[in-house]
Amino acid sequence: MVLLKAEDYRRMPWKNGGGETTEIAVVPQGAGLADFDWRVSMAKVASDGPFSHFPGIDRTLAILDGNGLELAFGNANRVFLDADTDPLPFPADIAVDARLSNGLVTDLNVMTRRGAVVHRVSRFEIDGTTERQAVGSPTLVLCHSGTLAVETGGVGVNLSALDCAQIEASPETSIRLSGKARCFVIDIVYE
């Protein structure tokens, strides 16, 4: 298990130049926007506009903070996301326009290379202790708010808001989450 501290995350410009992203983790390590297998990041969205286009990439978006964001997929489908809606998976190589509901939002963005890697993002409210089985390798646990202890295989780390634990364990390994926190569990699976 590796502890990824919020203050150590790498900051970089969006692919379309419209803002800045905070990279939590990427594989291979140090990969750029064109050659990652998977990537987990956060971004502040301060204005309406199109999402960056990533050929061959699948993405999941969740709102961490702010009043929400409406996504328009092409000319037809519109979806509203806020901090209480489930994470939304969609292809990153289709046209998507975003419109802020009422001010800045911060989002969580998970991307994987289609045909090589798949992912699943789940949000949990922890109040006490719960256990879940690892599905991916790796499995990442991002503490959105509160504090969270993460334990597996006799190893543990303590997470504060926006810290992340990256767990390199075989699927079906038990992960214990303890504390009072809102968190996201991100399972990465190589095909």
TrEMBL record:
Q: Which Pfam families match?
A: HutD
Q: Which InterPro entries match?
A: RmlC-like_jellyroll, RmlC_Cupin_sf, Uncharacterised_HutD/Ves
Q: Which residues form the signal peptide?
A: none
Kindly give the SUPFAM superfamilies that the UniProt entry links to this protein.
RmlC-like cupins
Q: What is this protein called?
A: HutD family protein
